[in-house]
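To whoever picks this up:

The parser on our side crashed when reading a file containing two proteins. I've narrowed it down to the boundary between the first structure block and the second sequence. Both blocks are reproduced below exactly, byte for byte. First block:
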Amino acid sequence: MNETKFQHDSFTCDVDVFYGGDDLVVRFYHKHKEQEANDIRDMVVVDPGFGFICLKFVGEDGLLSGFLDQNVFSESAVLKAIDFVQALSPRSGNAYIPCHVRLFGASGVIEYNGEY
């Protein structure tokens, strides 16, 4: 896993990159909203971040898909995020990579703490 930043216009967020062979998953979030080990007790509200993009290679080509928060990512920010993720893989250069990224909005929250 590598840690880096994503930036588009005035928006900047932290990014975790998880590699599985040639494939990768990128998580967009704010590191300062993450819990430290000593913060995890009683009721913990976990921030889900701004979304994920997955780049998976099938043969010589790839597939890119993901979900990004519509309150944070505009259409131009999604295109920048796609370019950002593709740049993380040396295999992207000559590959055909169709993309499907959905923008999502929260409609509710499910909480479970093991006690109820």
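<<boundary where parser fails>>
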Amino acid sequence: MKILIFKQILPLAAFGAAMVGAFGTNVAERNQDAVTSITAYPKLNLAGDCRENQPHTCEIENVGPLCSVGATQFWGKDASNKCTVPVYMEPQ
């Protein structure tokens, strides 16, 4: 009788441990996907030149409205060091 109960409970316990492990891994992966902060700058002109003396911290991922302070919108730099990449406000 004891062996029969053991044979029935062991698979359930193993399944429960697997479920706990799966959910724990999923939470860890979500925490790694946190948004990435970058330094952004206002544009000086339409060519994309940056105003280097006014940096601001913004996010790369679209997590909210475009990054701006007052009427000044901030931009991330592209590969050619021009302010053309739209960036977003940090989540509150």
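After patching the parser it read the second block fine. The mean pLDDT is 80. The two ends are 58 Å apart (CA to CA).
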